[in-house]
């Protein structure tokens, strides 16, 4: 990348990026992800806000979020909590209601998605005026850390099956590290009915249906909580059900 | 058209062409070689696709990037972040 300029030409742009962070029991990770976001957005000069959507975490995530608000300012850290654990789709809708950005970034709050890729997402989006930019673990120098052979096999196998059945035009369907134009995310979320991994797949498939353009950026996915990884039989079954549903209805 | 319908359409068309040639449904009196080649085609194609799938997934698993530097970098940044946040008054 070119040398960093001391002035911030990006700040004059009218673009603003709202980052949606749905959290559940992320008391330890939330400060770290916010620190990283502030660091990389600060360096890039883009306007941003971080919207924390906490689903009534019993571990005190919301209290930590309030502390972060005091440290970084209420214009940068917005809190949109909910009383109980509800779905991801509704979290996005809830978070977007008061978002003042014209772009929305969705990502995981557990540090598996690294904010250093966000400037790359933004560059990519501007390059092709893409309606959405998706982080991919499967192409270029994208990749994973902390996955054993079994998990890699299941991941690649499931992705291959999805590619054959759905031909979605994007390499990483279940990824949840993405940048959307706000209007695009709004129109997609109201059309999507699935849950979990399949929800993210459905978003991309419906985006293609509506002729939205999709750009891709390779990302590294660092899995630190592999010990508690939830890729068991139940997950696989619900993925298969979701895939068949998408195959039959889109 | 949903993907399911696309597939059913595709399979029907190919199936019809295969049945036509293999069983000479229109009495076209095609050469015997055509029928001999066409008859086992569905099985050949299925097996070929199976092999292609295994090879592709196998290749992709083998070349799945492991991001060791990314993990290291993250560990260091976590240390830096914790220190900085402590200075700014965050109580963990």
Keywords:
heterodimer, A: alpha/beta, two-stranded parallel sheet, 17% strand, globular, B: 92 residues, mainly alpha, rod-shaped, Dolichol-phosphate mannosyltransferase subunit 3 (chain B), DPM3 (chain B), coiled coil (chain B)
In words, what does this structure look like?
The complex is a heterodimer of chains A (250) and B (92). Chain A is 42% helix and 17% strand. Chain A is built from eight helices and nine strands. In chain A, β2 (47-54), α2 (61-72) and β3 (77-79) form a beta-alpha-beta unit. With 250 residues, chain A is of the alpha/beta class. Chain A has helices at residues 29-44, 61-72, 88-97, 118-128, 149-166, 182-189, 196-209, 233-249; strands spanning 16-23, 47-54, 77-79, 103-106, 132-136, 143-145, 178-181, 214-218, 220-222. The longest helix of chain A has 18 residues, at 149-166. In chain A, α5 runs parallel beside α8 (233-249) and α7 runs parallel beside α8. The termini of chain A are far apart. Chain B is mainly α and 92 residues long. Chain B contains four helices and no strands. The radius of gyration of chain B is 29 Å and the shape is rod-shaped. Chain A binds chain B through residues 28, 31-32, 35-36, 64, 67-68, 70-71, 111, 114, 138, 141-147, 149, 152-153, 155-157, 160, 164-167, 220-222, 224, 246-250, and chain B through 2-4, 53, 56-57, 60-61, 64-68, 70-71, 74, 77-78, 81-82, 84-85, 88-92. Chain B: Stabilizer subunit of the dolichol-phosphate mannose (DPM) synthase complex; tethers catalytic subunit to the ER. Chain B: Component of the dolichol-phosphate mannose (DPM) synthase complex. Chain B: It is a multi-pass membrane protein. Chain B: This is Dolichol-phosphate mannosyltransferase subunit 3. Chain B: Keywords: Coiled coil, Endoplasmic reticulum, Membrane, Transmembrane, Transmembrane helix. Chain A: Keywords: Endoplasmic reticulum, Glycosyltransferase, Magnesium, Manganese, Metal-binding, Transferase.
